[in-house]
Structures are given as C-alpha cells and as structure tokens.
Design goal:
Length: 364
C-alpha cells in the first residue's frame, strides 16, 4: 500500500526543511532571550538571573512561538488520492467532516447507519474534487466493520485517517438508568472505536496515517445526569492515549478532539433516550427531582452554550480542527474546541470537588 506521507508543498518548503528552519529560529530566540534577560538583570540588580529562570522563560517563549506561530505555518499535506474513513456520518459532526474532507479532494468512506443517509451523502457530494463513498456500517457489528475494511483495502489507496465519530447519548439519574443503556452506549461509543481502530490499524500503520477520536470535554470534567454518556467518552480518551503511545514508533499519530457543546442532534437524542429508558421505581423517583424537571434544567444551559459556540455555524470550528488533525504534518495531541471547553480545560478542572458537588446539587 502506498504511503500517506506528506509531499513538499508548492511553496518549496518540505516538512524537514521547515522543521530545521524552525529549530534554528527557536535556538536563536532562546539565545536572544537569555542575553536580553541577563543584561536587564545586570542593569537593574547587578547580577544575572538564575539559570533555571532563564531556561523557564526561554522555554515558555519557544513553546508559545511554536504553538501559535510556527506550527500553523507548516504546509498542509494534500489529500488527493488518499482514503479517509469516518464513522457516524448520518448527520452532525460526522456528516460535516465527510463533506469538508470530500471538498478537499479526499476519497471519503463515510460510514452511515442507514442506506437513506448514505444515499443523501451520495447525492450531495457528486462531481466535486474528491470521491464520496458512503458505506452502511454499524460499528457494533463485526461483519459490517470487516466488510468496510475490506472495501477500503481493495481500493489500494493509502489510509490517511480513521475518524472515530459514531456516538449515542442518554441523560438520566445513574440510579434510574438500566444497565442495558450503559451497555448500549459503551458498545457504540467505546467498543465501536476499538472495533474500528483494530480493523484499520494495519492499513494506517502501512501508510503512517492518523487515528482521530472525537471525544468530549466532559471526559475531563464529568457532570451529574450524564453518567451513561460521559463514562464512555472517558473510556475512549484513555484508550486513545494508550494506543497513541503504542503506535508512535510507526509514525502513526493518534489524536483526540474535545468539543464543548455544539448544535448537533446529540441533545435531543440523549434527552429522548434517557426519557425512554429511565426506570419508574416509586422509591427512587421520590428521592430525586423528576426526569423532566432535571432535563429542562440541564438542557437550558446547554442550548446557551451551543449559541455561544456559534450555533449550527459553529460546527465549522470542530471541522477545522479535524482537518488540521488529518492534514498537518505536526498535529496536536488534543484539540479543545469551544469557549466552554476551553474554560473547563484551563480553569474549571482545578475547582475543588466540594464546590462542584454543591453547584450540581443546587441545580436540582
């Protein structure tokens, strides 16, 4: 199978030459920072800063330059003649990823749960720069996944990326949701990811491609009423971290995307699933607020956060991160997307547990 490695960009930069250029500049920047810091220190205090402070300052400057200036300048890899496999492409994130990557010239194998969804994608994406190849694929079925892997293998195309996106949700009190709901969510969200990754990893190793897992910022900071969903995302992220360390030696990159709340069908579907599956034990029901009451209090802030993140148009922010994960020679390990997600990652995760518990209890 052909390799999916990057080729030199039209500008004349190869990835190797750009990294070398960047390394020289960062070394120069660190040297300038060292000299300037020591001179300023000598003038103001008559002695130089301790070496560890200079190293710390230079490291912060270097990291900031690379993260926000250098890395975005690295030329993207072309996607023409390369395969990208996506699960859960019926609607929401998955469909947005499939269409965007098709528009960039990739051959997209878009896994859909129904033939109707596959046909819609087929009609929507025709005559464009890429190729749309929808597949009816249930990630909980071994045969469906094996058949999809065989189709992609027979194409002879290098697999640039596998995007594990398929997911289902259900809100509800942990004491009221039946075990089968947890099992169903885990079967799709976690074991579906494992099943697909195992099926496609030999091809991804051969092409030195990517595995992109669509997680949730809730895996970093789980919340009440979300145990059936967020536990599956935590499992997925842990799996992603383990596999990343194992396949790094092959030139394969495993990436996690952590969206906040964006306007997809997840809220409505999760609400419906939770309402259907929550038990009706009178003793348990009397101990908690009603499902409808708690669901409304949960949905209202979620809708506000969806608006904050751009509503339907906000999906492009997550899509752009997935494109970067697929095309950049130096992708991030984690992409945190959305104002709420950034606040959780950088601030709220440090809040004490007693405060979180009381806030959640006060909300009902």
């Amino acid at each position: 199978m052909a390799s999916a490695k990057c080729t030199p960009a039209p500008s004349g930069w190869s990835t190797g030459s750009f990294v070398m250029y960047t390394a020289v500049n960062l070394t120069t920047l660190a040297a300038i920072g060292y000299t300037a810091t020591n001179q300023a220190s000598l003038v103001g205090h008559g002695h130089a800063l301790p070496a560890y402070q200079v190293v710390l300052l230079a490291s912060m400057i270097t990291w900031g330059w690379w993260r926000f200036v250098g890395r975005p300048m690295v030329p993207y890899c072309p996607l023409e003649g390369q395969a990208i496999v996506i699960s859960g492409s019926d609607y929401g994130f998955g469909k947005a990823f499939a269409v965007a990557l098709y528009d960039l010239g990739a051959t997209v194998y878009a896994g859909c749960l129904s033939e109707a969804s596959a046909e819609k994608l087929r009609k929507q994406c025709s005559g464009g720069p890429g190729k749309m190849m929808p597949l009816v694929m249930d990630v909980t079925k071994d045969d469906d996944v094996a058949d999809a892997a065989e189709v992609v293998k027979k194409s002879g195309l290098p697999v640039r990326a596998l995007i594990n996106n398929a997911g289902i949700s259900a809100f509800g009190w942990a004491e009221m949701l039946p075990l089968r709901r947890y099992q169903r969510n885990m079967e799709v969200n976690f074991f579906g990811t494992v099943r697909l990754t195992q099926a496609f990893l030999p091809m991804i190793r051969a092409s030195q491609g990517r595995v992109v897992n669509i997680g949730s910022i809730g895996a970093r900071m789980p919340s009440s009423f979300g145990s059936a969903y967020l536990s599956t995302k935590s499992a997925m992220v842990s799996y992603s971290e383990c596999v990343r360390q194992e396949v790094f030696r092959f030139g394969v990159r495993v990436i996690t995307v952590e969206p906040g709340f964006f306007e997809t069908e997840l809220l409505a579907n999760g609400s419906n699933n939770g309402s259907t599956d929550s038990g009706n034990d009178a003793e348990v029901l009397s101990a908690y607020p009603s499902y409808a009451e708690k669901m409304e209090k949960t949905a209202e802030p979620i809708r506000n956060l969806e608006k904050l993140n751009g509503g339907k148009e906000g999906l492009r922010h997550v899509t752009n991160c997935v494109i970067d994960a697929c095309r950049s020679p130096v992708p991030l390990t984690r992409y945190t997307v959305g104002w709420d997600a950034k606040l959780i990652r950088h601030v709220l995760v440090f809040a004490p547990a007693w405060l979180i518990d009381r806030v959640q209890t006060a909300q009902g």
